[in-house]
Design goal:
Blueprint lengths: L11 E6 L6 H18 L4 E6 L5 H9 L4 E4 L6 H13 L6 E2 L7 H18 L7 E6 L7 H17 L3 E6 L6 H5 L7 E4 L6 H14 L4 E2 L9 H13 L1
Parallel strand pairs: 1-2, 1-3, 3-4, 5-6, 5-7, 7-8
Helix pairs in contact: 1-8, 4-5
């Protein structure tokens, strides 16, 4: 029997994000752009993207790539979506044999990238680490402790590796809220948005919280948009296959 197409002979990878249920197109386009960047680094692979919010996106990707592959969850933490919901969606799409990798935010290389990003921001702003303040802004959750634990682990790593004067963590969906924490920060403080993409939380909720707090410092781009991320995704895929 002839294979369906040449793509079926290549190792397959699917980058999956949550997406925006109320408006799935922008998030879908953003993750597709990331997948294209990863694909350019892995020409011998078949790399595609999908969001849980876009109806049929996972099914289309699985139908194109085949019955086996690697799924890279572009999530900042593990939990119900990555451990239960995503495998169920894959099984429904005929991808029960696909392997779901650890989420983006749990990758040690990604957490090391967070340290590098803050270190570089300090240099650009002419700040001395031992006098600097950083706020890790994260999603959080009232249902699971996992998202907050990851954000706090990153904050601890920032403190330990950079020797910062002060590192705080604030959340969108749990206490302490970003607005509460940011209200007491100095004017030269730096905010690291611990998010994988530029969704509604980054576009709307984070700026609103910082405005409420009267925050005057610098807000970095979401960690997932750093130019080094495609290389980290490639490394994770290669390591998982190899």
């Amino acid at each position: 029997m002839m294979p369906r197409n040449d793509l079926s002979r290549k190792p397959a990878a699917l980058i999956v994000a949550h997406g925006q249920p109320s408006d799935p197109a922008p998030a879908g386009a953003e993750i597709a752009f990331l997948a294209a960047k990863v694909q350019s680094l892995m020409p011998d692979w078949h790399v595609r993207a999908a969001t849980l919010a876009e109806p049929g996106a996972i099914a289309r990707a699985v139908a194109e790539a085949g019955e086996e592959g690697l799924v890279y969850p572009l999530f900042m933490a593990g939990g119900w979506f990555t451990r239960t919901h995503l495998p169920e969606k894959l099984a429904e799409a005929g991808g029960a044999r696909w392997t779901v990798l650890p989420p983006f935010g749990l990758d040690g290389a990604v957490q090391a990238l967070a340290v590098d990003v803050v270190r570089e921001a300090l240099l650009v702003d002419g700040l001395v680490a031992r006098e600097a303040t950083v706020l890790v802004a994260a999603h959080g959750s009232f249902r699971s402790p996992a998202p907050a634990e990851v954000a706090r682990d990153v904050a601890t790593r920032l403190q330990g590796e950079l020797g910062l004067a002060r590192v705080e963590v604030g959340f969108i969906d749990q206490s302490p809220r970003i607005a509460e924490v940011a209200a007491g920060l100095p004017a030269d403080a730096i905010v690291l948005p611990f998010f994988a993409a530029r969704g509604g939380h980054v576009i709307d909720d984070l700026p609103a919280a910082l405005e409420e707090a009267g925050f005057l410092g610098r807000v970095l781009p979401p960690l997932g948009l750093d130019a080094r991320v495609p290389g980290l995704v490639r490394r994770a895929l290669k390591a998982s296959r190899g």
